[in-house]
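[step 3/7] fold_predict: job queued, chain A
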Amino acid sequence: MKAVRSVQRAVAILFTVTQSKQPLGLSEIARSNEIDKATALRLLHTLGEAKLIEKDPATKHYVGGANLAHLSKFRCQDLRQISAPYLESLAQKLNETVCLNYAHHMERVCVDALPAQKHELRVMPHIGKSVPIYVGATGRVLMAYMRPDEIDSIIHQTKSAPIQDRGIKNVDFFRKRLDQIKQRGYEFSNGDDVTVGVSTLAVPIFGAPDKVCGAMTVRVPAIRMNDEKIENILPKTRNACRAISAALGCSELH
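[step 4/7] structure written:
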């Protein structure tokens, strides 16, 4: 069966816009897809009607639209199903609580978790619980790979409201921290984040190069965390996240 050319072009434009690190103008979108601006504009208008793409009225640049969240529900289900065996394997190797999280609007959501089996003292999150995305190691990992305008939007809309006295107190410092996280590929908090007394190590999962679709998080009582344990946890968690990313179709791993 022959593919519908206009649909192919619309899908290509959707990928171009949503995978870009910054908002794109009409000329950039047309040039990237090797089509004329009039055709690109018609397709962008159609995608805009479906709220899959939005146009900034001030800059005239395009970003992903609100209805992408509905598509992401299917992606989240894929993420959970594909990650399940790796989550189980990692939990057994580490004997600590391992969680799977993804970003949803201004929050991060725990979609799956397995507890430590051989410790009486363990930390188990509530599956389905959401937390403001800017708080905690997991949220910072998810934010580190967002576009600058997405980060700006979160800071502006949430007003950085603190959670248990923890929030974004210094915006410039917070941005630098996100840059550092992106460079090293993980984040760690030592018992002083969302849940007091819990140390957390979070590693990103990629659905496409530089596009994070989730994060694997290891939660350990702070009293049990030390440098030796971090050296054991980090490479194993990274390997699990690389395997999940590859299974999701990300051929170029971060």
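[step 5/7] annotate
The first strand starts at residue 53 and ends at 55.
The chain has two domains: 5-64, 68-247.
exit 0
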